[in-house]
Amino acid sequence: MKICVYGAGAVGGHIAARLAAAGSEVCVVARGEHLAAIRRNGLKLIRGEETISPKVKASERTADLGPQDFVLVTLKATMLGAFAEACAPLLGPRTAVAFVQNGIPWWYAREIERLDPGGKLARAIATERILGGVAYSANDVVEPGVVLNHVPNSNMIVVGEANNENSPRIQKLRALLEQAGMSSPAVEDIRQAIWSKLTVNLGTSTLCTITGANIAEVRSNPQLAELAARLGAEGRAIAGALGVAIERAPQRPGGGQSSGMIQHKPSMLQDYERGRPMEIDAQITAPLALARQKGVPTPTLDLAAALVAYKAAAKGLYTPASAVSS
Asked: What is the pLDDT at residue 264?
């Protein structure tokens, strides 16, 4: 099978290396020093005592890679517009595109314009191509071309059809992920996995970004832990109002949804500290918009969202909707 991982950073690099090592024909889209290192040395993945360096075809130009069986898009939500502009050469007649991301994906709530500004993704990706994906995997790019996986025996990539059909292609993708050593259990509704992870992130992403603390520090502080619990409860209430049974979402190997790497900072805080655009719309404002649609009260999330948005905007990493419309 020909598989392109578009965005071979920490999570994407881990997935690409594992698939390539298991025998899939893998190519990656990367940039800069990371791309140069992959071309020179292969994509190196460190996982526990094992290091693998499978050869993958790498380019920053999709025209160099050609049509694929599967495209796994592991970009941050803020970068998806670039994928929409460049994806055409990867798409053959039967290519499926799995969006593996945090928060509410663009295809889930098309009425929320900020998830797909200008409708670029909707025009570029036909509905029948779309797969949803959620990654439960703690990784870092420790140097160009080198990815460190922190939880070698606890990685899970949940994928599903947007319409929840148990199609042959989704069965094939799950089998490829499983053969590569990543748990990929069946899910009756991919939205269950999306909301299961999101309800955790609503507490950690917001509070860690506001305070600058890591996950362990937030959970060990009684006041912050209580706020995190409230944020999670509000997230579960939104999911319930949407008819999503998050208690039926798959669990990682060993149980639960957390990687156990609680000394880490969530990706939103990492983006803030590194001066990168922040996924506030996908992870915070989209859930709030869905709450408004269903009349679900979210007082704690309203406050947290305002604080995160203000902090991000002050650093030039986010443009609130009010600023766009004014």
From this structure: 77
Of 192, 295, 288, 286, give the one whose Cα is nearest residue 231. Answer: 288
DSSP reduced 3-state for 88: helix
| E strands, the chain, in order | 2-6, 25-29, 44-47, 50-52, 57-59, 68-73, 91-100, 130-136, 139-143, 146-149, 156-161
The angle that helices 168-179 and 10-21 make with each other, rounded to 10 degrees, is: 90
Which residue numbers are catalytic? 197
Class of domain 192-316: mainly alpha
Please tell me the distance from the alpha carbon of residue 290 to that of residue 296, in angstroms, as a whole number.
9
Residue segments in the chain with a per-residue pLDDT below the cut of 50? 257, 259-260, 324-326
pTM passes above 0.90? yes
CATH H-level, domain 2-186: superfamily:
NAD(P)-binding Rossmann-like Domain (3.40.50.720)
